[in-house]
Write a structure and sequence with these properties.
With 143 residues, the chain is mainly α. Helix content is 59%, strand content 3%. The chain contains ten helices and two strands; from the N terminus they run αββααααααααα. The longest helix is centred in the N-terminal third of the chain and has 12 residues. The radius of gyration is 14 Å and the shape is globular. It starts with a helix and ends with a helix.
């Protein structure tokens, strides 16, 4: 089972003007339904991955974000919750939207993690190198 079969949002897709938010919510919902593949489950909410950088950027904890996702009626309600959080401002969203696509690139957070885990998480990037985590995810989930 791949992310494509789960119909996860792409990393750059936005909700409430914020990239990664709809994908992170998709992963939590899929995990709750026990439909998230093993390696996705292992990385879910990890401080070493995009989820962790996202949570840190917005001053959120994984348990509180997970609770909001699972108790929201859908993405519109989740967007309202997200926008009500103290560190979810237009400035922090803009900063995140600039940083997130750079994660995993040389000189940016996640560079070492992307290289150490590419055999397991992003195997296609071994033969067809990419420069960021967003690119690795997109490449790996293409059918």
């Amino acid at each position: 089972m791949t992310g494509q079969e789960l119909k996860l949002h792409r990393p750059q897709d936005q909700l409430a003007g914020c990239c990664w938010l709809p994908r992170f919510a998709d992963k939590i919902r899929a995990a709750h339904r026990k439909q998230l593949p093993l390696f996705y489950r292992l990385a879910l909410g990890s401080s070493l991955g995009v989820d962790g950088y996202f949570l840190q950027n917005f001053g959120l904890t994984f348990p509180s974000f997970r609770q909001a996702v699972l108790t929201s009626a859908g993405n519109e309600e989740l967007a309202l919750w997200f926008n009500q959080q103290p560190q979810c401002t237009p400035d922090t969203i803009q900063a995140w939207n600039s940083l997130a696509p750079q994660l995993g690139k040389p000189g940016n957070p996640g560079y070492l993690t992307r290289h150490l885990l590419k055999l397991v998480l992003y195997p296609k990037s071994i033969l067809q190198p990419v420069t960021s985590i967003f690119e690795a995810i997109d490449q790996d989930e293409q059918t």
